[in-house]
Amino acid sequence: MTQLELKIESRDGVVLMAFSGELDLAEAARVEQRLLEIEAARPPLVVLDLRGLTFIDSSGLRLVIEADQRARRDDRRMALVRGPEQVRRIFAIALLDTRLQMVEDPAELSAAGDGAPP
Amino acid sequence: MVDTLGPSYPATQDASFEASVLDQVDAAVIAADRSGLVTRWNRHAEKVFGWTGEEAIGRSILDLVVSPSDLPAINEIMDQVLAGAVWEGEMALLRKDGSRVVCHVNDAPIHDGVGAVVGAVSVSVDVTEAKEAEHRLAARTSVTRALAEADALAGAASNLLQGVCENLGWPLGSLWAVAPEGDVIRCVDVWYDRSMDAAEFEAFTRSVAFEPGVGLPGRVWASGRPAWIPDVVQDRNFPRGAIAAIVGLHGAFGFPIVLGDEVLGIIEFFSGEVKEPDEDLLAMMAVIGSQIGQFMERKEAEEELRRSRDQLQAIFQSVAEGITVQDPTGRLIYANDAAARQTGFASVEEFLATPLSGIMQRFELTDESGAPFSFQRLPGRQALRGETPEDVVVRFRDPDTGEERWAQLRATPVFDSSGKVQFAVNIFHDVSDRKRRDEAQRFLAEAGPILSAAATDLEATLARVAELAVPWLADWCAIEMVQDDGTLRTLKVAHVDPDKLALAEDWGRRYPPDPSSPRGAANVVRTGRSEIYEDIPDALLVQAAVDQEHLEILRGLQLRSVITVPLTARGRVFGVMTLVFAESGRRYGPADLALAEDLARRAALAVDNARIYQERDHIARTLQRSLLPPRLPDIPGMEIAGRYRAAGAGNDVGGDFYDAFEAVDGSWVVVIGDVCGKGPEAAAVTGLARHTIRAAAMRERKPSEILTTLNDALLQQRSDHMFCTVAYVRVRPNPGGARLTICCGGHPLPVVLRADGTVLAAGSPGTLLGIFPDPELVDRTVDLGPGDALVLFTDGVIEEHGDGEMFGRDGMTDLLRESVGRKAEEIAEAIEQAVVAFGPAAPRDDIAIVVLRVET
After folding, report:
1. Is B102 in the same domain as B196?
2. Out of A2-16, B594-608, B632-646, B661-675, which region has the weakest mean confidence (pLDDT)?
3. Structural domain count, chain A
4. Which end of chain A is more exposed for a tag (fewer CB within 10 A), N or C?
5. Over chain A, what is the mean pLDDT?
6. What's the gap in Å between the CA of B568 and the closest CA on chain A?
7. With contacts defined as CB-CB under 8 Å, which chain A residues touch B803?
8. What integer best gives the mean pLDDT of chain B?
């Protein structure tokens, strides 16, 4: 089981949190704590980059869903950079790819608000 | 001849002849008449005494050669000779110049023709020089002897002064030494002939201090050379002159005690007479002075050596390390108390009296790894060869007592000035305590993983602990468990010797411990307190034995030392551990008891944790079971099988569930779901989901409607985004098989396995439930024919990681293709086994499987 690594960058009002490893029940609480800290500064856009994820379970899904729900409630934006196949499939099965803003590359995003969720 | 020399012949014609003969004799020949008047005086007498024949003849011999103080003695001799006797001996006589001459004298009477004594003749040989040489030699010898017999000059001084005074005839001598302050000299000792009253002179001498150049000793000190004063009374640089005059001291000399250029002290001698300088005497005294100087230096060096040796000894005796010194032959020549103590000797003397091989034979020597250690390898041996050996740690075991000690041995060679090995110094640092601590730590470290594995099987764990204790902590170790009725059941006996193991087990069976026994395991259970028997005397065995055979068995066990410790959890003793030293002859001490208690505490804690864990596990499983149907219903014409397996140790309630039931319209419902997370929260959502589905299925038919109801219920009742995923299948059996309506809310799509081996996903993805108010949920219909199967599962089954180590979707497809023709139960079993077979990493998530198959 590989330890999950987080890399957090903040630039022009965009906070990018890049995951590397497995996001599961054991890691969810720690990641949520970091997300809450980041959100406390009310960044207009938080991007979760899932490209480095090798695994995500239902706890990981819940983490993402909750972050999205908080963003909607607080009138902020949250977006995901799609992960590898096994991670995409999980989102696809839950039909989350239509509910969350998902992109292939963080370059597609900017704080300005293009590509906003439906 | 003597007779012819009588005075009756003075006028014969042969007188000149006789006179010329007498003159040739190399001795002083003097004849005198009865009144002592000299009648003959030969030429040699002239040489010896200084008086010519003309001067002497006719005068009294007593006036000529006898000092007034000797008169009484000489008169007595004269009387004897005139009475007809002869006399021979040495006497000191006077010369014309007043000086003394020591002569060997033969006196004989002179008879007349009829035998009457008419005079005496005296033949004297001058032996002054010979005597003086003899006296000086004696003086030197006396100095040498005095020094040889003394430890220090202070002790030698009195004998030395006396010897010189007596032998040289100088009646008073004194020794001066440089005072500690270094700027004056003081008298250290005085000796004088007690026929002389010199007390006042002595007292004054002892009281004064002379600066360099003052008085006789000051002069010698300043010059570093001998000095001679013919008459101190007349000398102007002699502060004690007045008292010397009263005592009657005149001639004096002094000489330095020298070492190299340094004057260590001064010795002076006094004569009752005025004495002219005698260079020979002074030369001799100079030699004596340097002899004494060397003596003092040697004594000082010896004293210094002795002091430093005393200091070293004192240090050596007070250190905890054993210290021994070996001579080049390997013989022990020194040992301190600790060395004797550590090797079990009562005293250093006893230790040193024992040959090294004898000392070593008292022990079994092993190195740190337990291999035999030859005493040839002792570092002292190498040190004696001139090498500087590495420290070694050896274990000394006394076979008699079984006592073991570890010592770190260090040896260092000591070389003499020529580079040859003079000694080997050995230092024994007793590291037993440290070694025991290390061993205990190592032992407990080894025990750690075993104890932490207690969760799986606590009895097996305790058995492993017993095995671990042997042989390091015990020759045999028994673990007994307290049963519900309070009696003890032997769980495990571990023994170094398997034959003895059988004996011990047999012993335990045949002689179960008496629960009322005041000692042993039963007592430890009762009191909860450890017991230690450092020694087991035979009397104790006799006391413990129930009959003769029992006693023989007990004796056969060779019990030497025993520790029994309780295994206690939450205040209750649930077992005992007994450690026994038997054939190895070792003995337990307080440190061993502490270690055994530590081990027992850890073992008991591990076992207790395991119990709590097992209980919790049990509760979790019970709860989980309540979330699953007790048994799956029989659906006409169909087979159904379910599998559920919790992740890990299974002490947390999982979020997976499945259910199968008959709906109101005669259709059947098969449902599988997964709630995110684990534990009580997940269990609550699981319960909510299951009961909501059952309730909704009583009113609704369309699966999507039912899942929408569930979605609403979750949104209403939970604000914490506890979502779930569900695959809902409505089953309507028909003559050709069954028609299935499938709706998935965020759940992995079920898989259809056709009887021809085709594998395909069924249904359409839908939104997971409990998050969004408007989920997309789609109903799809699939028909199953005979032998066709539908497989529902949770994501734990197809969990996929990037490293591809998991069973996965492809694994599932392959497995199902191979499962064609198998019954539902067999397919479910095969899937479960395949997931589990992926090793220790799987399953991380719970897994649930339901297989529905149309009978063939």
Report:
1. no
2. B594-608
3. 1
4. C
5. 85
6. 34
7. 54
8. 83
Tell me, yes or no, whether B653 and B610 share the same domain: no
Residue A116 falls inside a structural domain: no
Q: Which helix (H) or strand (E) holds B408?
A: strand B404-415
Give the integer Cα–Cα distance in Å for B251 and B233: 9
- A7 CA to chain B: closest CA distance, Å? 19
pLDDT number for residue B11: 46
Q: Which residues contact B69 (CB under 8 A, 6 or more apart)?
A: none
* CATH number, domain with residue B415: 3.30.450.20
Identity of the residue in A22, A89, A94 whose CB atom sits nearest the CB atom of B746: A94
Q: Which of residues B627 and B254 earns the better pLDDT score?
A: B254
Domain boundary among the residues B411, B430, B449 is at B430
Both B332 and B414 in one domain: the answer is yes
Q: Which residue of A has its CA nearest to B723?
A: A62
> Can you give the pLDDT at residue B6?
45
Strand pairing of B737-745 and B779-784? antiparallel
C-alpha dihedral sign at B795, B796, B802, B805:
negative
Asked if residue B622 is part of any domain, the answer here is no
Mean pLDDT of B771-788: 94
Asked if residue A9 is part of any domain, the answer here is yes
CA-based nearest distance B338→chain A, Å: 57
Nearest to A65 among B747, B771, B775 (CB): B771
Quick one: tokens of B520? 């042993």
CB contact under 8 Å between A58 and B721, yes or no, is no
Beta partners for B786? none
Distance (Å) from the alpha carbon of B686 to chain A's nearest alpha carbon: 14
Residue A53 lies in a domain: yes
Assess whether B119 and B227 both reside in one domain: no
Domain count, chain B: 5
> Within an 8 Å CB–CB cutoff, is residue A84 touching chain B?
yes
All residues of chain B having their beta carbon less than 8 Å from the beta carbon of residue A54 are 801-803
Residue A113 lies in a domain: no
Q: ipTM of this predicted complex?
A: 0.86
B117 and B173 belong to one structural domain: no
Q: Looking at beta carbons, which residues of chain B come within 8 Å of A24?
A: 844
The string over B512-541, giving b where at least 16 C-beta atoms fall within 10 Å of a residue's C-beta and e elsewhere, is ebeeeeeebbbbbbeeeebbbbeebeeeeb
CATH code of the domain containing B155: 3.30.450.40
Q: Considering CB atoms only, which of B765, B799, B802 is closest to A95?
A: B765
Residues of chain B found within 8 Å of residue A62, distances taken between Cβ atoms:
676-677, 721-723
Does residue B309 sit within a domain? no
Span B381-428, pLDDT tens digits: 888 888 888 888 888 877 776 677 788 888 888 887 788 888 888 888
Chain B residues within 8 A of A58 when measuring between CB atoms: 655, 674-677, 723, 725, 795
- For residue A35, the distance in angstroms to the closest alpha carbon of chain B comes to 16
What domain range is B426 assigned to?
318-430
Query: With the C-alpha atoms ordered B306, B308, B310, B316, is the resulting torsion angle positive or negative?
Result: negative
Is residue B306 assigned to a domain? no
Maximum distance among all Cα pairs of chain B, rounded to whole angstroms = 199
Q: Is the model's pLDDT at B705 over the cut of 90?
A: yes
Residue B841, pLDDT above cutoff 60: no
pLDDT in tens, B106-149: 998 998 888 889 999 988 888 888 888 888 888 888 888 887 77
pLDDT (mean) for B587-613: 80
**For the domain that residue A90 is a member of, what is the CATH number?**
3.30.750.24
- Please indicate if any CB of chain B lies within 8 Å of the CB of A29: no
B673 and B571, same domain (yes or no): no
Residue B676 at interface with chain A, using a CB cutoff of 8 Å: yes
Is the Cβ of A100 closer than 8 Å to some Cβ of chain B? no
Residue B544 has pLDDT above 70, yes or no: yes
Measure the CA–CA gap between B62 and B59, rounded to whole angstroms: 9
Of B126, B154, B171, the position where a domain reaches its end is B126
Q: Which of A79, A81, A77, A67 is nearest to A31 (CA)?
A: A67
- Are residues B153 and B256 located together in one domain of the fold? yes
Name the residue range of residue A74's domain: 5-108
Measured CA to CA in angstroms, residue B467 lies from B471, B579, B730, B796 at distances of 8, 11, 59, 40
Q: Do residue B328 and residue B406 come from a single domain? A: yes
Closest-CA residue of A relative to B798 is A86
Residue B762 has pLDDT above 80, yes or no: yes
